[in-house]
Amino acid sequence: MSSELLLAIEHAAVRGWPALEQREIDGWVWRHASGGSIRANTVAALAWTGVDLDRTIDACETLYRAKAAPCVFTVSDASAPPTLDRALERRGYDRGDDHVTMAKVVSAEPMCPTDASAAAQPSEAWMRTYLSGLSEDRRGIARRLIANLPRQAQFVGLSPDNDAMRSVSSTGLTIVDGTLASVQCMATLPDHRRQGGAWRVLAAIETLAQRQGATHLYLQTGGDNVAAQALYSGFGFSVVGRYHTRSKRV
């Protein structure tokens, strides 16, 4: 896949998980959400329009300092300028864990499972299942981030008893943004794992994406999450980019 497609995916990922507070700084997107989500608490450095890189970094640090929060950048293969990672390292920023961006071409005739449903708002059953897969520090802010999603968000759930308002065994979320459709918020209850639930959620998301004219699915996951990458690779995804964080030492 082309570098142009990767950049488009990275921009869509920023739009698809907005922080509670955002500001543009010389083309970058400064994001803050009081903890929890990595994406919602880092600078998305994708389109730099400044003339002095250190001055732009200084401005980001000032905003995070006012929030009593660490200054953290997401640095990807699509980041601009290309010298950003080296500049942050020189300023004493520590490198965080590696992550991957994966994508696949949407199938022409996806097969939607019969036990999957989609809704414009998450049911409480959907929320319980999604939250069950999050660490404690992420659960507190998750509901507010979900409520702040773009209006085209579609919440996908599998219901063992065909009643998605009462019980959901697996969750997913997709946001169609032009020709791109995200795969987000994947979770399965412990008692339902290894039963193909995540695969069926992916199939439902692909069906929604195909119906709305998307040409590619994309997702982002941990670079060391071998199990997740194996699942997604088996569904047809491949790694199209990598990213990591850079955090200022305090």
Explain what you see.
With 250 residues, the chain is an alpha+beta fold. 32% of the residues lie in helices and 30% in strands. It is built from seven helices and twelve strands. The protein has helices at residues 3-16, 53-66, 84-90, 124-132, 136-147, 197-211, 226-235; strands at residues 21-25, 28-32, 43-44, 72-76, 93-105, 116-119, 153-158, 170-177, 180-182, 184-188, 216-222, 238-248. Strands 3, 4, 5, 6, 7, 8, 9, 10, 11 and 12 form a ten-stranded mixed sheet that branches. The protein has a two-stranded antiparallel sheet with strand order 1-2. A hairpin with a 2-residue loop joins strand 1 and strand 2 (28-32). The model has no long low-confidence stretch (mean pLDDT 93).
Name some characteristics of this structure.
single chain; alpha+beta; ten-stranded mixed sheet; two-stranded antiparallel sheet; 12 strands
